[in-house]
Amino acid sequence: MTEKRPGNVLVAAAALLCASGCIMPDQIAKIEKDVADVRSRLTRIEQAQAQTQRDFEEVEQRLAAEAAAVTREDWSDLEVRVNQVREQLATTDEQLGDLGRRVDRLALELHDRDLGRAPAPTPLPAPSDPAAGLPQSASGAAGALPDPQSLYNTAYADYSKGNYALAISGFEEYRTKFPTSPLADNAMYWIGECHFSQGAFPDAIAAFDQLLTAHPESEKAAAANLKKGLAYLEQNDVRRAIVQLRYVVSEFPQTDEAKVARDKLTSLGATT
Is 255 helix (H, G, I), strand (E, B) or coil? Predict the structure, then answer.
């Protein structure tokens, strides 16, 4: 069976995002959420497919090992189970196909959004403009700093491709050079996500804490608090994880993050 993996299309979507220097922060936030949702769903589907494949192999082994000993009724039961697993694999392949088409639509949306913008966007203020809230260079020259939008987009594209070390470097540069920009909190959040994806859970927790201290009202606050709880779980620090997950449920009750936190608490046998 051929497994369809739309990961390459995710990379293409990230590349389009990187190329679209005129996409505004609110549009980037929506695209980030869409890509994160797709990545999460892809992970769940791949896990389900791996499990059904293991089930299928187990049944085939039983058929081979017990063919001489099973009764006609046992044989029929095993054949039914094989057919059920085959159907599950077919369903998973169909879901992967749907997921690939969704990522394709996302890439087209990014492309059309960029091409369909008639007037040229208003350029970001020069670094020497105090109204921009951006740090001036030591020399005061307008061209001393990199373009903030391009820097952010490049770092996010690296994250989407799994180039976490490059992404961390880019996001660190962004938050250092543009600490008051609208995407500074997002940059800090993705630094934490990069560490989490690398399995560096203490570093991830530290990054999320930095975000929550510097930007307590950030739109990423719920997600950062949730990922802290998940990072504690990954370190088998169940007590802290439960406290953190309960905090997410209490402080962000209507969010998707709260739903995930409730599910995790239930799986741990803890109340909300």
Answer: coil
Coil vs helix vs strand at 77: helix
Place of tokens 């938050």: 175
Burial of 186-205, coded b for 16+ CB within 10 Å and e otherwise, reads bbbbbbbbbbbeeebbebbb
d(C-alpha 8, C-alpha 117), whole Å: 26
Better-predicted residue by pLDDT, 257 or 82:
257
Q: Residue 238 has what pLDDT?
A: 95
Q: In a 3-state reduction of DSSP, which class is residue 91?
A: helix
Tens digit of each residue's pLDDT (9 = 90 or more) over 180-191? 999 999 999 999
**What b-and-e string marks burial along 52-67, b requiring 16 or more CB atoms within 10 Å of the CB?**
bbebbeebeeeeeeee
* Nearest-angstrom CA–CA distance, 35 and 163: 16
From the list 160, 161, 154, 213, the residue with the least C-alpha distance to 188 is 213
Find out whether 134 and 127 touch, Cβ atoms under 8 Å.
yes
Euclidean distance between CA atoms 222 and 197, whole angstroms = 18
Rg of the chain (C-alpha set): 23
The amino acid at 201? F
pLDDT category at 114 given cuts 50, 70, 90 is: very low
Run of H or E residues at 79: helix 72-115
Cα separation of 12 and 100, whole Å? 12
Q: Is 175 helix (H, G, I), strand (E, B) or coil?
A: helix
Number of residues written out for the chain: 272
